[in-house]
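ugh ok fine here u go
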Amino acid sequence: MSDDLVQCDVTAGVAVLTLNRPAALNALSDALMAALKARLEALATDPEARVIILRGAGKAFCAGHDLKEMQAGRAAEDKGAAYFADLFSRCSEIMQLIPTLPQPVIAQVHGIATAAGCQLVASCDMAVASEETRFGVNGVNIGLFCSTPMVALSRNIPRKQAFELLTTGAFINAGRAAELGLVNRVVAPEALEAETRALADTVAAKLGAAVRIGKRAFYDQIDMTLPEAYAHTGAVMVENMLLRDTDEGISAFIEKRKPDWAAE
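structure:
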């Protein structure tokens, strides 16, 4: 069943993960979250997967948590307190897992990306959106402030704009999402798959070891002071320079030839 909920296809170095609850707008049910986490963890050690694309089946990318399932949790004696704590903890684990994966993760977004769905976009390393997509952290409209989605969102876009979205429940279009930095680029609906794949293919063609080192360093240095960040990334560049394939890549550039990189 989990294979059906999150489908996976790895072709030419690119793994495409598809959230597959189209009738529920790919809402993050307990089962879907478990399947997504399992797929991501498996890809982390898959040498064939150099880049990951995350997308949704049907009309939407992801509509957030499954509210019907959440309401059913209230039947417990504690009115759902333990279930809700566990739910948000499990969701947060997925969002924190994405930046730690060795591969860049690109969200391919269409339809809507709301609440935890918007959080999922913000947690990915890059995002390509169809121009008809709407984004929102709109839980406040039903009395539930999007506090956990706020973590990823406020690390993607300016604070005042994030706070406005969180407190008004307003939706923004893809163009505005790009202006704020939530997505990298906006494309026509019919070009979404091809444009996302082109970006993935471009990254997949780079030296995988360098990309893995670079992604790890990117997130490590963000919260450091400026001196700490330079000290850390300097050491990372030494590590990178000592790779056999980096030596070959630089030599090939100087000699104006294609690098002969070892199979990774």
